[in-house]
Amino acid sequence: MRQARLHPALVFTVVFFGIFLLHVPLLSLPYFWDEAGYYVPAARDILLTGSLIPHTTVSNAHPPLVLAWIALWWKCAGYAPLVTRTAMLMLAAFSLLGVFRLAERVANAQVAIASTLCVAMYPVFFAQSSLAQVDLAAAGLIFWALVAYLDDRPVATAIWFSLAALTKETAIIAPLGLAGWEVLRLYASKTAAPKGAIHSGLFSARLKTCLDTNPPTETTTASSGSACENEGVPQASIQRTLALLLPVLPLIAWYGYHYAKTGYVFGNPEFFRYNVAATLSLPRFVLALGLRLWQVFAYQHLWVLTLAMVLAMWLPPLEHDGAPRRRIAISVQLVFLVVIASYVIAMALIGGAVLARYMLPAVPLVIIAAVSTLWRRVPYWPIFVAVVVAGFVLAWFVNPPYGFSPEDNLAYRDYVKLHQDGEQFLEARYPMSQALTAWPASDELSRPWLGYITRPVQVVRIEDFSLEQILSAADFRTNFDVALVFSTKYQPPHGTLDRWQTWEALKTRYFGFHRDLPPAAIAQMLGGRIVFEEERKGQWIAVITVENIENARRPDSTSRMTIAKR
């Protein structure tokens, strides 16, 4: 007898209202980091001009699907952070529904519920759920594509992967990796055909016929193997390969359109240099590979679930109705492994910033496999899942003992609150001043529609608050009256691996790491005094008034501009 399935509309409704309630304190926050620097301005350009190519920020050639979605919500409900974040929570709920459907497809409803809960509470996924960025939405579409792929629906597979690629260009990694896997399987099926050793597997019409004649029991699933696991024909593999390659076409069309409008294929030259050209070196690849593996299997308390999975492998399978509980079919596990490996390798090769959000298509696959292992082998497995969820929730609030991106947990809220306080103080006390600062505060001060201030402040922009940049700013301090300085890198207050000089040197050389000077040192070097300072959990902001040597301001009050790099 087949298990009764929960209706998708019911699952979506429960998931959406659940994550919406958890995000209520965050829904009215102004825009954070890359939101303010790229995605919100680009979506706003679509709203105001209908242009898919942003003109109020430098184009990074990201496909416009999510940006158009946000612009549509603004058109219908008004321009406000609450509207933006609600629109993104809708995409997050749809992505979690994709996780549920995928886990239910490869395992069962119990594993699906537990896996969806774990993914929703995973700090990186939770933090990204309401942020106006594209990686989570692309991951969700990949999960839906994997469901179609495992069901051997080539048309649906091509559509879902095409939508994913038009959400974030790196989503093309998943179908290309699977296409390579299909080619290997097709070659293996031909060479092993005389021995009958390997066939196309789960997805052929022959498998469907086999499942009709050998339906799974209530302790098995359609994808759990049994007598049907080795059925298949090469023709089905060829169809799947073509379906997996098809999403390249709409992505090429987008890049062609972008080139026609801007003269650049992959975004502005600085963006391409930072994310591709400057990353292609063997030492950096090895270091980035280690970081990507850490992000996929251990980051933000994920190691608890990974360790539990490994230890559970030593236990025998539990029995149900006299038979051992079924595992996820080996062929499906290999599909998961192909996607995970493709992302780990590809994102170690490209991407100037080694951000954890880039691995969101891979982490939920690890979670599904781990939860399925616990369900299969551990008697009181829900207790272990509850411990994992508690660890994830703890990681929302407790920062790790090493440098990390604030967008990976609720540290981004601390950042936004700090900048609200500092910039509102600056606007109230020095409304006619010209302020020295760095990106993204330069955008926050000059664009009131980002939600931090009510009227624009003139800005002189530097890259960061490292020693070199502050020394450079000191040479033209007659060009500004006040400095808004803040932590651009999170650093833990106590000594950790980040204090190891060799590791810091490697990060500086290969990942653009720098140390911000403390506010007191910056004030001394600029010849100013601190009039406002605030700190939250290792992040800080300060306003410094500057005593100008000359009474008159130089007429060419310009600064070196940097480009938003992600």
Order of helices and strands: HHHHHHHHHHHHHHHEEHHHHEHEHEHHEE
Approximately how much helix is present in the residues? 40-55%
Main beta sheet: 5 strands, mixed
| Widest beta sheet: strand line-up | 4-3-5-7-6
Instruction: Indicate the radius of gyration in whole angstroms.
Output: 26 Å
Strand content: 5-15%
What best-fitting shape do the alpha-carbon axes yield?
globular
Let me know the number of strands.
7
Chain-wise SSE layout:
Blueprint: H1 8-23, H2 34-49, H3 65-77, H4 81-106, H5 109-121, H6 123-128, H7 135-150, H8 154-165, H9 173-191, H10 205-213, H11 234-245, H12 248-262, H13 269-275, H14 282-297, H15 302-312, E1 319-320, E2 323-324, H16 330-349, H17 363-377, H18 381-397, H19 411-429, E3 434-438, H20 441-446, E4 458-462, H21 467-474, E5 482-486, H22 501-511, H23 519-526, E6 528-536, E7 539-546
Parallel strand pairs: 3-4, 3-5
Antiparallel strand pairs: 1-2, 5-7, 6-7
Helix pairs in contact: 1-4, 2-3, 3-4, 4-5, 4-7, 5-17, 5-18, 7-8, 8-11, 9-11, 9-16, 14-16, 15-17, 15-18, 16-17, 17-18
Describe what you observe in this structure.
There is one protein chain. With 566 residues, this protein is an alpha/beta fold. It folds into two domains: 8-398, no CATH class; 408-546, Rossmann fold, CATH 3.40.50. The chain has helices at residues 8-23, 34-49, 65-77, 81-106, 109-121, 123-128, 135-150, 154-165, 173-191, 205-213, 234-245, 248-262, 269-275, 282-297, 302-312, 330-349, 363-377, 381-397, 411-429, 441-446, 467-474, 501-511, 519-526; strands spanning 319-320, 323-324, 434-438, 458-462, 482-486, 528-536, 539-546. It has a five-stranded mixed beta sheet with strand order 4-3-5-7-6. α3 (65-77) packs across α4, α4 runs antiparallel to α5 (109-121) and α4 (81-106) runs parallel beside α7 (135-150). The longest helix has 26 residues, at 81-106.
